Amino acid sequence: MSKPSGNQKRTAIIYFGETRQDYLRLVQEKGHRELLNYIQPLLTAQLLEDQHHDGCSDQSHYTVHSQRNRQLQGLLGSKETIAICRVRCQTCGAVFTVLPSFILRYRRQDADCLGKILEMNLGMGLTLRETASIYSWMGTGRSWQPSWVWSLVQWLGNLLPVYLLLMRMGLKPPEHLLSDEKFAILNGKKVYLFLASEQELIWYGKWMGSSDEDCFTETIEAFCVGMDDAGHTSGHIADEDEYVPISVTTDGWIASQNAWESRVPDITLMECKFHGHKRVFSSLDDYEKAHPELSYEQLSQVKAHLNSILAAPSLAAFSQRIRRNIARYHDQPILLKRLNILKEKRFRFNNHLKFEDAPAYSAPLDRSMRFLDEKLHSFGQFRAEHAIDPMLNAWAIVNNLRSFLPGAKKAGQSLAQFFGAIVNDIPWMEVLNLCTVGLLHDLLPSSS
């Protein structure tokens, strides 16, 4: 992620209320007494000592230094001139810019406009050209190019890592993970997109050049180090501790499982039962082709026998059904091979029974990855390595923060809210803007 510039270190972001008028009323007031009373505790919460001049002994008192106008564009092309305040520390004289949360640094569009453009492109699977065309049709007065939308996606992806964003929103690091990978195309060659999630909630994404154990180990190491740093700065992990997930559910890829065990030796590995069923179906299909003489009833009986194994309610029942089927099909090499694999993996298919919240299936992650599939399908292929991770991080942010549409099971709330984040009905782009400077609960007034 990009490092903040010197000017950004002296920028504060404040939430002033549900409407823009809440901000304008305070800024336009003579004397600014009410404005200062409102912002001073919020400034103290986010402006650190090293952002002031050396030797500053009191960072809790400010006065309005000046105002400057900034033009802001809305989604439908409307332009508005907004007064931006600059405040001065009364102790050391350091000057800070105070941005309302609906204005983002170095962007001409307001938070509502940028949020909807990013939802169209990253959440709805529209191409860069379609997104740019729709935005141009909305009366913006100019023709926007696909490259501008792409630069916006890259800007979002470089703003802050999705795992740091979630922790700053108040979510705890997940104990039980889902891990999977998808492939994408980079200059005509296949690459892999590694994802780690808590159910549907995406916590991490990174591209890999291959799917071997070394690449998985390097990627999982980067994930754990990033979670450590974010957990320490957000207060979710003590400084002397490390992030150690309890379990991870994978699709059964051996390289991935070995890498997780290598990086987190005490982790409990679990294998997705859905992927287990797919491999059983594949073996049954091979068996059916090898035995065309079998009747429908006979094949149905074989399928029922093998499918009953993964449906077992306990490890003991799982093992018992394997033993019975090995005895039953000891002279059928195709079925015997699959049964021996299930026997070898019996613990991984049943480890979820040890924990109340551990997932037996990777379907929740697959549901989120479906939106990534749509994006990759409309996107085509990547042209540069450095663009992959920001795009993946931007997609994860939008996936986690955008609200579900009416009619959905989680209608009206985002995944982050569903998993416990409290955003007080603040639009997701403003929440993101606030989280770039600190912990969300520290940046909201007590009455919010």
Fold and architecture overview:
This protein is α/β, with parallel strands linked by helices and 448 residues long. Among the domains are: 96 residues, no CATH class; 59 residues. It is built from 17 helices and 9 strands. The strands form 2 sheets. A 5-stranded mixed β-sheet has the order 7-6-5-8-9, sandwiched between helices. A 4-stranded mixed β-sheet has the order 1-4-3-2, covered by helices on one side. A hairpin with a 5-residue loop joins strand 2 and strand 3. The chain is elongated and about 90 Å long. The model has no long low-confidence stretch (mean pLDDT 92).
State mean pLDDT (0 to 100 scale).
92
Which descriptor suits the 3D outline? Answer: elongated
Number of strands: 9
Helix content: 40-55%
How much strand content do the residues show? 15-25%
Largest sheet: 5 strands, mixed
Counting DSSP H or I runs of 4 or more residues, the number of helices is 17
Could you list the spans in which at least 5 consecutive residues all have pLDDT below 50?
none
- Sequence of strands across the biggest β-sheet: 7-6-5-8-9
Cα-to-Cα separation, first versus last residue: 30 Å
Q: What is the H-and-E element order?
A: EHHEEEHHHHEEEHEHEHHHHHHHHH
Q: Nearest-angstrom radius of gyration?
A: 26 Å
Q: What structural class should be given to the helix and strand makeup?
A: alpha/beta
